[in-house]
Amino acid sequence: MDQTIRQAIVRGETSLGIEFGSTRIKAVLIDCNFETIGSSSYVWENQLINGYWTYNLNEMINGLQETYHQLKEEVQNKYGVVIQKIGSIGCSAMMQGYIAMDQAGELLVPFRTWRNATTETAASELTEKFRFKIPQRWSIAHLYQAILNDEKHVHNIDYITTLSGYIHWLLTGSKALGIGDASGMFPIDESARQYNEDMVKQFADLIADKDYPWTLNSILPRVYTAGEHAGYLSESGARLLDPSGNLQAGIPLCPPEGDAGTGMVATNSVKKRTGSISVGTSIFAMIVLEKDLSAVHPEIDIVTTPEGSPVGMVLANNCSSDINAWLGLFREFYEAMGLEPDMNQLYSVLFNKALEADADGGGLLSYGYYSGENITGLAKGRPLFVRSPESSFNLANFMRVHLFSAFAALRLGMDILTQKEHVTIDRILAHGGLFKTPLVGQKMCAAALNIPVSLMSTAGEGGAWGMAVLASYMINKGQDEGLVNYLATKVFKDAEGLEVYPDRVDVNGFALFMERYTKGLPIEQAAVEHFAEK
User: Fold this and answer.
1) Residue among 76, 47, 71 at smallest CA distance from 59
2) Among residues of the chain, what percentage have pLDDT more than 90?
3) Which of 335, 318, 317 is nearest to 327 (CA)?
4) Domains of the chain with CATH codes
5) Among 47, 139, 159, 331, which one has the highest count of C-beta atoms within 10 angstroms of its own C-beta?
6) CB–CB of 53/112 below 8 Å?
7) In this model, does residue 456 exceed pLDDT 70?
8) pLDDT in tens, 154-180
9) Is the sign of the CA dihedral 230, 231, 233, 234 positive or negative?
10) Would residue 228 be called left, alpha or beta, if left means φ above 0 and alpha means ψ between -120 and 50 degrees?
11) pLDDT at residue 164 in the model
12) For the chain, first and last CA: distance in Å?
């Protein structure tokens, strides 16, 4: 087997997926059977600078190079081969946000991430104008808000894109974007698989008096669907990725995608009536729709699969950050006792304590709001833990309530899809770090959504693996073979998964918790108003 893989590496019969997540940059190299040959990661963090959540793009390049270097070393140590050829490459990243460049390719303002809740006026006006939900984090909302703010940089814009599109441009020089990520920049016309031309014209009318030297079509990336070629690794891109000079230029790249799209691929959730849930710093559910929704809902975004099928997306800005912070506190206690903590064991022990808890979490309450929360209408966040003297305050309840809180805002959005729009969901597939401890995350998620939740054996590979699969699809698909069929008959034909059904006691317990959660939102608002930032 090692010899077979070694030959695949030498011949370039591989696909590489690189994903820039909110906390990790990850790379995964797969063979033609979608098995992982090597993987690596680099930890990075966002920063709140001058009122905007952002990432240092110099660190981004350093992280990209370090991640590839680690992968290259792992492959060389394991198989005795230096990577020179790769069959195909794909780049993905956290969706939406705002990267604006001038004609020289220089950033006009620091990268504004999806996490910012600074575009309320723009998003509201565009939603009303288009009669289509425009979330605050979408690129067009950031652009229009900058226009409303009379920001000087807007006049000099030559190109705007997302993080995945920016990485792709650095590697290829191509201003391209996969349709899934593009659908978080500007609304997509499902039949044309392009930006909605009527809304493009409406936007042009809206800003006609500004007399900018650009049009929206001239500054947006070109839209590509899964399976299309979207550029080739340039000489400068090859040196950027692999400064050693080993990697050859000319490698084809598939359309860059958002992490929502790669999560759907990684869980085989691109078929209509299926859905996926991704948990991390944020949490989002992607439900592939059979028909258009009857109304515009502030809590529901309409995006697409990597093939262009419409998706109802429910995204909550906050999920696991507060849990990780509390686990860090437990680690400090462990170290203060003179012990060496095993973090995997620490997570496992504490997560499993949640299974011993009272069904509703013992009357405790938690808001893991590190940033504002769009679904509950909070412009800023304050992580908050609340209890009364009558609450049952023990470790089991403490852990259950924090896990419940991670799914609470998402539940509010999902209720609109299932109860108001009567959307049928055949199955939900989950992925993300919260599900690494067997059963616990699935049970909490199933209780929160009252839907069976499956965790596929491939889900732990994450979005970078899903991106590598999209890259593989581009060069290995059959003639006229769609992505749905490719995933079903090739990628996941032998995949195994564990499905967890909602437990009635847990479901009723979560309902009681949600009563406290919704009634307690004014407490969170008061914390925002009266507990100042540094």
Assistant:
1) 47
2) 82
3) 335
4) 267-316+412-500 (3.30.420.40), 321-407+507-529 (no CATH)
5) 139
6) yes
7) yes
8) 999 999 999 999 999 999 999 999 999
9) negative
10) beta
11) 98
12) 56
